[in-house]
Each structure stands twice: as C-alpha cells, then as structure tokens.
C-alpha cells in the first residue's frame, strides 16, 4: 500500500513544520518528549490513551482486531483484551446503532467504519438516532460517548468507493459534531477531544496521510479544543480555508502565490460542525477575500455553507466573490482522478483571479 | 448430508474422486473462536434433525427437485460429457490464468487500484454460470473478474477495463470492481458488499413480470454472488424475504471462503451455517462443496431449473477458499498455513483434471492444448489492453445524468472540460 501511495503521491509539505510559521495555538509544552509519527501511529496512540484512561471505552468495527486495514488499531486488542476491542460483522448500520446503544448507557463507543464510503447504511442511525438522542429524550439519555472514525478522501487509486468525502452530508445534521484533522499531531489531540466530548462526533481521517504525513507528536495525553479554527499561516491579501489533506495542497499553492507577491492567510477549520465562524470572519475582514477548497464535489459541499455565512457577516468588506476550488460534480472517478481533484494549480489560478478581481 | 431439498441423505453429492468417502460429511474444525463474541460452534456440516423435520413440514415445493435428482442418479454414472468437461475445464483455466496475469500486471504497475483475485474459487463461477444463457443475469461483488469472464465478457474487454482503457467493458470508468456488460447481462461488480443483492432481486422481478404479466416467454433467472461476510448484512436478509415472498427466479449463491478480509466467518456469525438461513425465509437452503465443480454444477442445475419453472428462489452456500489474499494489497498474514495447504490440496482445477483423465473423458494432450490456448488468449488480451488508448477527457463529465448537457456539454456545444476556460492558466493536467 505504501509503495502504491509513494508512486502516486504528491510532494508533501507540512504546514507549520517546514517553513517555520508561527503556530497560534500550541498543543504541548516544550519539555515533553515528542516522537516522529505518521498519522495512523498518532491515531493509534490516541486510542491507546483513550482506552487506558477510561475503563468503559470500547473500540470496534470491521477488522480492528488485527490492527485494521490501515493499522490504526494495532496493539489495542492485545493490550486491552478482546472484550473491549473486537471485530464486528459486516453491517455498518448495526455497528453504529450498537455504538449508539452503548453510548446511551454511559460507555464510550469508538466505532470504526472501514471507509467513509461505507458509512451510508449507518447514515440513518447517525442522523435519526445519534443526533437526536439527547434532544428527544429531554436530556435523560444521550449518546455523547459515541465517536465514529472513518478514513475519507482521495488516495490516488481509490476509485468510486474508496475515495469519497462525505463530510457535507453530516454537516447538515444538528446534534453531531464533525471533525477533520490535518496532521498527526492534530489528529491525536483532536481525536482525544472527540472521544471525551459529551456529544456524538464523526471523525474523518484523511487516508492519504496515514503513511505520508510524518510529524513530531508529543507522547503524553493532550487534547486540542473543538470548534476552534487555527490560522496556520498569516497573510494579508486573501484568506484560504480548508481541512484535512487538502491543506497540504493549499499550502503549496500559497507558497507559489507568495512568489508572485500575494500574501495568503491559511486557516485550518478542524471542526466543521459547529465551525469557528469568528476566526474566519476576522480573517476575511482583514484580507477582504476568501477561497475555500475541498475534495468533495462543489455543489452543496461544505464550502457553500462557509461562503454563505461569510457573505452575511462580511459583505461590505469583501473585495471579490468567494471562490470555491473543489472537486467536480461527478462521482469520484477512477482514471480521471488527477483531473477531478482541486489541484495546486487550480487553487493558484483561483487565488490570482480573486486577487485581481 | 441432508440438504433442505430432501429429508434423505446424500442425494446431491457425487464423489469427484470416485471414492466412497463423502467429503461433505467431514466436519471442518477451525481455530476455536473466542467465547465472548462470535459463534462457539465449529463448522461441522451435519444438519440437526430438528431442522430436517421442520423442512419436511414446510410448504415450500421441493418435491419436484428430489425427483429430478433421483432420476439423474439412476441413469448415468458420469455427470458430464466430454464436451461439457472440456468447456468447464477451459473456463476454470481461463479464470485462473487471467487472475494470475492480473497479479503480474499489478506488480508491474500496469493496473492500479484495489484488485481482488478469485484464485481457488473458480468452481463456483464455472459451476453456476456455465449453465446460464446469455439473457440470464449475473450480479457479483468486487471479486468479479472471473464472473464476467464466465458470463462471456471477452478477456480483452476485462483486461482493458482493469488497465483503465477506453476499450474496456465500461470504457475504463469502473475498473476492477465494476464489470458491467449489457450484452452479456452482467449487472456488475459491486465494491460495497451486499449492494448487488437488491439489484439482483429487482432483475429477477423483471423476469417474473415479463412472464406472468406481459405474457412473454421469459425464462430468465438471476444469480447473485456474494461472500460470507455479506451474510451478516441487513440487505441480504431483506432480499431473502422479498425473493421468497414474491417467488422470484433468483439464486443466491454464497461463496463462503471463511474470511472477510481479516475476520473469520466463525467469529463473525452467530450460526455459521449459512444455508440454514434459506428455510427461515421459506426457500430451500443448500450447502455444497465449492471446490468441486461437478458438485456445484449439480446443485446449480437443480436451483436453476427450480427458478425457471417458477418455483422461486434458492440459497446455495458454496464452501470454497481463496488462495490469495483479500486483495493484491493484502499481505495475507492472518490465515493459518495449514488451512491454506488443506484447501490448496483441493484445488478445483486439479480435481477436474483428475476426473476427466480418470474417466477417460479427455487426455493430457487435450488439456494441455486448452491451457496453451488460454495462455495465448490472456497474453493477447494484455497486448490489446496495452495498445488501447486511454479515455478522452470528455468522458469525465459524461454519464453523470442521462442528458450529456446536464454537466458535460456547455452552451457552445463542446464538452465543458474541453473548453480551455474550464481549467485556466496553470491548471492544466
């Protein structure tokens, strides 16, 4: 798998680690030990900590026992026992529903859906049950202990059913939270926050970064707050908003734009629902321009929500229309993936045309 | 063993190796599963007396099938003629060589994506599909190359599809897991487990409707293939219910290879004997040795005849095994070497070869010439696929909707993606 990814990978430049930009929110103190980890190892560490700190937390899903198809759950079954880390049969609806039941009885259920593309049978349970449990029981019951983890996003050769980005569907559901990390260090902190958050959370992991992204990750237990966006890179001319693996592409586009004298401000949204409107609003009020980029198809993608909200709040400050550089409105293609994706060049073109509007 | 077809023993089994011992009675013991979750039973194929009585009391019309089978046993001792034997052999060799060539091409980088190979399970595909006509439909899973080949899709078309070329059966749009063919009524590979079963159910309804309402002479049946993991999925049960309720001409074939990626069937299923789920819904459930193409063929004949006659659906569980990993990216570390060796010894191709030679239906030279012919065919398919062009960019926006203007064609009549403004400046790909 790594060889294949290597063959098709784009060069990865990690925001925040390679060009020394100031990080506005840090997540560890300097004296702690850090280790160079990739994304799946960071998530694995987070799961180990979560299970260690709460004896009533469980990890289950398809093939998690041996470590999972992406190795995120390695070592958990051996360490915590098959009573807490177990494989389920192949039934997403059943798995999530079962997790909701566990959560409703006060446990922490960390459910793995093998690929985000397979989450749709569980969509009913998530939308109709998980999101509404606290609401319709009048706060007698809640399934806050539920965290659903799913690898999402393009991987170079995934095709229709191993590359989808379904975050927009979930962002339309009041009652759940949607979180997407951009790097190993963020993933560990965010996942621990999600697990401990008293609301059900859907946590999408960019599968392309599982092995490709490597970062220094603190070894201790730390959490990154939800619903707080981070300005990864400061700038004055245009604000770029993104999440997950797309940020690395956007960062490259920003570097190229800088060579042409355009100063870009890059924001990682981290939590899509509920999203940090204040940070984005403050940034757009400063720069006057906004560009949003995501892999999911453009129509009805989450970029539309961001665009509409910012328009309401910053209309008079905007110098140009909000630009969205996203996937095309087709099913995720197999052979045409490079053509479908919002590539660095497409983003660069959009930056230039927005700035020169 | 007693199947749900009849309360008596051993009507649907003929030993392939001519010995008295009946393979289906041998209990298969696998590693003891955990007692906390999963089944505590081992997979022994001895049905419970309670079930036999329950079946005898059922209203489902299985009597006719019993007679068919008894008659077969009385007349001839050989199950196939020479022509049929050679046809089966050729089909299985085609499946095997094709899959081996896929593996080679994948590791050479000509093929990409998620590829799932069928090595070891050829008897199921050949056993069932070679009994079907061109108008019968087949619905498969992501392990669908060999189903497509058995159904008649040319090796060239499948290989080109795998390479992502425009001459592929889906013009390069689908890839390994989505083999469709309108001409051969191959209703697809499905990447998602269980997704194909409702589709097959709908296709079966069409046949029934054509025959009973439109009064056309339609005898088409649909065969839905899926794995053991799928049998824990809701869609499967919903369709068993509907098929039995509407008495649809469909055969549900479970290719039970005991593993769903890394999850053993025994640890995932409360009652591992999948064939038992048929009678629960009012249709016969049969278990057959899926490594033996002649046994599969016998059971398939009964099931297809039943469906064509209008007697409704059948659930057939084929006990089989995949020799390779789940996909070409799977290192296949979890399965026990002893288990693999045991099934490798029951290779369906070797078994059929032995049967043909021992029963003087063919000689070594015949079989060798078939193998050579298939080798050349597969080589030629690779060359064809290599030489074929990649799809044009306009294909990206085609077929999203019925109307190509939906997304594809702009106001100037050209495909939007051909329009230079679509990707401006540096955004060329």
Describe the protein's architecture and organization.
The complex is a heterodimer of chains A (357) and B (429). In chain A, the strands form 3 sheets. Chain A has a 7-stranded mixed β-sheet, sandwiched between helices. A 5-stranded mixed β-sheet of chain A has the order 9-11-10-13-14, with helices on both faces. Chain A has helices at 2-8, 39-53, 76-80, 92-104, 120-130, 133-136, 167-170, 184-196, 209-212, 246-259, 277-287, 302-314, 337-340, 344-355; strands spanning 34-38, 57-61, 85-87, 108-112, 146-152, 177-179, 201-206, 214-218, 230-233, 238-242, 264-268, 271-273, 290-297, 323-327. Chain A has 2 domains: 19-223, Thiamin diphosphate (ThDP)-binding fold, Pyr/PP domains (Rossmann fold, 3-Layer(aba) Sandwich), CATH 3.40.50; 230-355, Rossmann fold (3-Layer(aba) Sandwich), CATH 3.40.50. Helices cover 36% and strands 19% of the residues of chain A. In chain A, helix 2 runs parallel beside helix 8 (184-196), helix 10 crosses helix 14 and helix 11 (277-287) crosses helix 12 (302-314). Chain A is built from 14 helices and 14 strands. By secondary structure, chain A is an alpha/beta fold. Chain B has helices spanning 49-57, 63-75, 82-107, 122-129, 145-151, 155-163, 196-212, 234-246, 265-268, 277-281, 293-309, 337-344, 348-358, 364-387, and strands at 137-139, 180-181, 186-187, 222-227, 250-256, 259-260, 263-264, 285-289, 314-319. Chain B is of the alpha/beta class and 429 residues long. In chain B, strand 2 (180-181) and strand 3 (186-187) form a beta hairpin. Chain B contains 14 helices and 9 strands. Chain B folds into 2 domains: 78-387, Thiamin diphosphate (ThDP)-binding fold, Pyr/PP domains (Rossmann fold, 3-Layer(aba) Sandwich), CATH 3.40.50.970; 392-428, no CATH class. In chain B, helix 3 (82-107) crosses helix 4, helix 4 runs parallel beside helix 5 and helix 7 (196-212) packs parallel to helix 8 (234-246). Classes of the chains: A alpha/beta (357), B alpha/beta (429). Chains A and B meet through helix 1, helix 13 and helix 14 of A and loops of B.
């Amino acid at each position: 798998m790594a060889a294949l990814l290597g063959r098709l990978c784009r060069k990865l430049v990690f925001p925040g680690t390679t060009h020394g930009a100031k990080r506005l929110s840090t997540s560890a103190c300097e004296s702690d030990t850090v280790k160079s980890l990739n994304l799946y190892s960071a998530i694995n560490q987070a799961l180990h900590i979560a299970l260690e700190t709460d004896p009533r937390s469980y990890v289950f899903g398809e093939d998690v026992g041996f470590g999972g198809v992406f190795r995120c759950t390695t070592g958990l079954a051996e360490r915590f026992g098959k009573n807490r880390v177990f494989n389920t049969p192949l039934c997403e609806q059943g798995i999530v529903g079962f997790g909701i039941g566990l959560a409703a009885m006060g446990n922490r259920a960390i459910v793995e859906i093998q690929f985000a593309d397979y989450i749709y049978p569980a969509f009913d349970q998530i939308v109709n049950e998980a999101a509404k449990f606290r609401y319709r029981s009048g706060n007698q019951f809640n399934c806050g202990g539920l965290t659903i983890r799913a690898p999402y996003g393009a991987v170079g050769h995934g095709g229709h059913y191993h590359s989808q980005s379904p975050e927009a569907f979930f962002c339309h559901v009041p009652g759940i939270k949607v979180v997407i990390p951009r790097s190993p260090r963020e993933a560990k902190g965010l996942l621990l926050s999600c697990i401990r958050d008293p609301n059900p959370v859907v946590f999408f992991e960019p599968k392309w970064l599982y092995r490709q992204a490597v970062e220094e990750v603190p070894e201790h237990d730390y959490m990154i707050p939800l619903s707080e966006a981070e300005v990864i890179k400061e700038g004055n001319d245009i604000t770029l908003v993104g999440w997950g693996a797309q940020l690395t592409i956007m960062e490259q586009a920003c570097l190229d734009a800088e060579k042409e004298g355009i100063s870009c401000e890059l924001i990682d949204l981290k939590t899509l629902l509920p999203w940090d409107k204040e940070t984005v609003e403050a940034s757009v009020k400063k720069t006057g321009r906004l560009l949003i980029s995501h892999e999911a198809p453009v129509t009805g993608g989450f970029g539309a929500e961001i665009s509409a909200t910012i328009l309401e709040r910053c209309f008079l400050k905007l110098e140009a229309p909000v630009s969205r550089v996203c996937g095309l409105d087709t099913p995720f293609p197999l052979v045409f993936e490079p053509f479908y994706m919002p590539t660095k060049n497409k983003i660069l073109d959009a930056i230039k045309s927005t700035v020169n509007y | 063993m007693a199947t749900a077809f009849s309360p008596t023993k051993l009507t649907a089994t003929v030993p392939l190796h001519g010995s008295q011992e009946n393979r289906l009675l041998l209990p298969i013991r696998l590693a003891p599963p955990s007692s906390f979750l999963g089944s505590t039973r081992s997979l022994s194929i001895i049905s419970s007396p309670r079930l036999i009585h329950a079946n005898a009391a059922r209203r489902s019309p299985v009597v006719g099938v019993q007679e068919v089978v008894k008659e077969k046993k009385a007349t001839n001792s050989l199950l196939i003629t020479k022509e049929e034997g050679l046809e089966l052999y050729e089909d299985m060799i085609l499946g095997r060589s094709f899959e081996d060539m896929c593996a080679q091409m994948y590791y050479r980088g000509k093929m990409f994506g998620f590829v799932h190979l069928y090595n070891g399970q050829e008897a199921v595909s050949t056993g069932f599909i070679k009994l079907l006509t061109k108008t019968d439909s087949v619905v498969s899973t992501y392990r669908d190359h060999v189903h497509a080949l058995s159904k008649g899709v040319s090796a060239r078309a499948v290989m080109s599809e795998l390479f992502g070329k425009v001459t592929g059966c889906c013009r390069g749009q689908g890839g390994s897991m989505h083999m469709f063919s309108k001409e051969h009524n191959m209703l697809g590979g499905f990447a998602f487990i269980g997704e194909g079963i409702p589709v097959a159910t709908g296709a079966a309804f069409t046949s029934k409707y054509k025959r009973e309402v439109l009064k056309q002479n339609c005898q088409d049946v649909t065969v839905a293939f899926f794995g053991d993991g799928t049998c824990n999925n809701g869609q499967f049960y919903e369709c068993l219910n509907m098929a039995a309720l509407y008495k649809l001409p469909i055969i549900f074939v479970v290719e039970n290879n005991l593993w769903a990626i890394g999850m053993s069937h025994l640890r995932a299923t409360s009652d591992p004997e999948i064939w038992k789920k048929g009678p629960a819904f009012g249709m016969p459930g049969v278990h057959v040795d899926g490594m033996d193409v002649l046994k599969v063929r016998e059971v398939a004949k009964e099931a297809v005849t039943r469906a064509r006659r209008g007697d409704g659906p059948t659930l057939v569980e084929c006990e089989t095994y995949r020799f390779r990993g789940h996909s070409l990216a799977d290192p296949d570390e979890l399965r026990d070497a002893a288990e693999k060796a045991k099934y490798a010894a029951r290779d369906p191709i070797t078994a059929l070869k032995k049967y043909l030679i021992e029963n003087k239906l063919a000689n070594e030279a015949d079989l060798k010439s078939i193998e050579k012919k298939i080798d050349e065919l597969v080589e030629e398919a690779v060359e064809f696929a290599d030489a074929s062009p990649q799809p044009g960019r306009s294909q990206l926006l085609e077929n999203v909707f019925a109307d190509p203007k939906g997304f594809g064609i702009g106001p100037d009549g050209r495909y939007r993606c051909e329009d230079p403004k679509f990707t401006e400046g540096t955004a060329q790909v």
